[in-house]
Amino acid sequence: MSNERPTAEELRQGITVEIIQDDQDVQSTDREPIVGEIGTVYEDTPDGPKVELKTGVVGHVQSVVHDK
Fold it and tell me: What are the tens digits of pLDDT across the range 30-66?
């Protein structure tokens, strides 16, 4: 898995991703990513594609979670 973030165009509903919420410091090393399934993809931003998870949490995608 590469460390590059996916673009909004590469994402679709149902993909499991790791996101960081807007109120968290994206550059911080002690942030806790939230893992969930995408419900809605919004747009690309400098912090990563903005999405809403099926749980209602909105944030910026850091990586796609691949099944083991």
Answer: 667 899 999 999 999 999 999 999 999 999 999 999 8
Q: Which helix (H) or strand (E) holds 21?
A: none
Measured CA to CA, the distance from residue 36 to residue 50 in angstroms comes to: 13
Host domain of residue 24: 8-64
Rounded Cα gap, residues 66 and 19, in angstroms:
14
49 in a structural domain:
yes
Let me know: does 5 contact 45? Beta carbons within 8 Å.
no
Confirm whether pTM is higher than 0.85.
Answer: no
